[in-house]
Design brief:
Elements: E1 3-7, E2 10-13, E3 18-25, E4 33-39, E5 46-51, E6 58-60, E7 68-73, E8 78-83, E9 92-99, E10 113-114, E11 118-123
Parallel strand pairs: 2-11
Antiparallel strand pairs: 1-3, 3-8, 4-5, 4-9, 5-6, 7-8, 9-10, 9-11
Length: 124
Amino acid sequence: QVQLVESGGGVVQAGGSLGLSCAASGPAFSTYAMGWFRQTPEKEREFVAAIAWSGEITYYADSVKNRFAISRDNANNMAYLQLNKLKPDDTAIYYCGASHKGLVPRESYDYDYWGQGTQVTVSS
């Protein structure tokens, strides 16, 4: 069992930046791929970025490529998402997930564990 807790959300103006963190507890964090997803009341949970267990492979949704950066620190059981050049369309609740299915899984049903989410609001 892995427990995930996100933090770092907030309100930021368009063009600004935020750093999200995902703290994991439980065994074998370094064996899980980690992903970030986001959700609004109007949309289903949407893939944002994923990182392989080693940290050497990453994958991004086209909508965030070259703006967001995913990383992880296996020694401290942490995953991160740096959000840059934020747009109002990036407003959502952001969730981190842990998966044992594939290197950089992009479907929410491939994730075994989820955090509670952190709200990101981008004002225009």
